[in-house]
Structure formats: C-alpha cells, structure tokens
Amino acid sequence: MSASPAPQATPTPPAPVIFDLDGTLVDSEPNYYEAGRRLLAGYGVPDFSWEQHSRFIGIGTRETLEILSGEFGIDAPVDELLEGNNRTYLELARAHTAVFPEMRAFVERLSAAGHPMAVASGSSRSAIEAVLAGTGLDALLTTIVSAEEVAHGKPEPDVFLEAAGRLGVDPGDCVVLEDAAPGALAAHRAGMRCIAVPYVAATADDPAFLSAGLLFKGGQGEFTARAAYDWIGQPVRSSP
After folding, report:
1. How far, in Å, CA of 196 to CA of 178, rounded?
2. pLDDT the model gives residue 1
3. One Pfam family, short name please (predicted)?
4. Best label site of 44, 130, 162, 235, fewest CB within 10 Å?
C-alpha cells in the first residue's frame, strides 16, 4: 500500500490589529494640548503647560477633564468642559493632523494582507471620525471604538475588548499598537499582544511597557512598518 500523503498545515489567519489613535497613528497631541490650554484659559487657568498636559497622554478626555477640574477648582459640569474641549479640538484637527508616515505604511501593508483592523481610542467618536476622515485613514480603518462607548477607559481593557468583539475575533489573537503606558497596560489586561511605540521618550522605561511583546524605545523615530509586520508574523510563544 502506498503511504497516505501528509496532511497539509492549516494556514494561520492574519492577526487582527487594533490601533490606538492619538500619538500612535497620528500626531494629534499638539492639537489636544492647544484645545485644553484654550479651554482652561477660558475658565481662569492661565499658562497650562505642555508638561502638565503630558501627564494625561493615553488617558481619555473625560477622565482628564475630571482630574483637571478638580485640581484647578473649576466649577463647571464635566459635560460642559468636554463639549468645549471637543469643539476646539475638532476645529484644530480638521485644519491639520499629521499621520506618522511609517504608521500609514503599516496600515496599508496590513490591509493588503487581509488583517482585520480597528481603532480603539480614548477620544470621542466625533474626534476619531474627523481625524480618520481628514487623513484618509477612514478608507482602511472602518471599525472604531471610543471610550465614550464603554464603561471604563484605559488602563482598563474595555475599549480593546469591545474592538475585538466588533471584529468578531478572539482577544487573545489580537495585536495592539500603543504609544502610552495606560494603553499598554490595557492591552495586557485584555490578554492581547502589544507593540509599544512611546510618544513621550521619558516613559519608555515605565513598567507598563514591560508587558509589550515589541517595544520601540525610540518611539516613532525608531518604528518601522517592516519590523512591526515581521514581528506580527512570528509564531506566538506559549507561556512556560
């Protein structure tokens, strides 16, 4: 009798990839800072600095405003602050938002290879949609989740788990792209692999980034679409 042919290995489906938006796909932090600075100035808080703003990178806008209103004693509803901040931010974002070139190349490469993709962000849905439309990324990134749509923002895993649900994939199969420590921690809590590209260089040694499978300590200046894509294609190693 002739030997039966060896069974063919089942191809591994392309890994789902979930992107944070601000500071990861696009350099929107200058716009968020300016929107916050103008908002606070209108409530009698002058000279809000970039250093003060940088504490909140990776944290949702509502949570940020809740903290700032408490710190500066602003007697106004958070919803009012959020509406004013979003209005100014959208004006700035529509005028100009820069996409990191290697991130655009990465999204295009993933799309061509059939990877399911989503955006999960602490920004409002209107802000996410405006930025994606203004940069042309909306054609490739059609599944989006805002922190407004889940119970808890980052560092809780809610936005990433919701994104996986909308993509119809297992969270454990997903890879997250993040620039901030709270987001990296959220990815870990969601049981997802993480590629970390710190926006603030000083945070690269944050313990939250230790859970990232791939860390570009030099941030966007070090990140390349090729390196990230090659890493995603490697077999996932089981924990001992």
Report:
1. 5
2. 44
3. HAD_2
4. 235
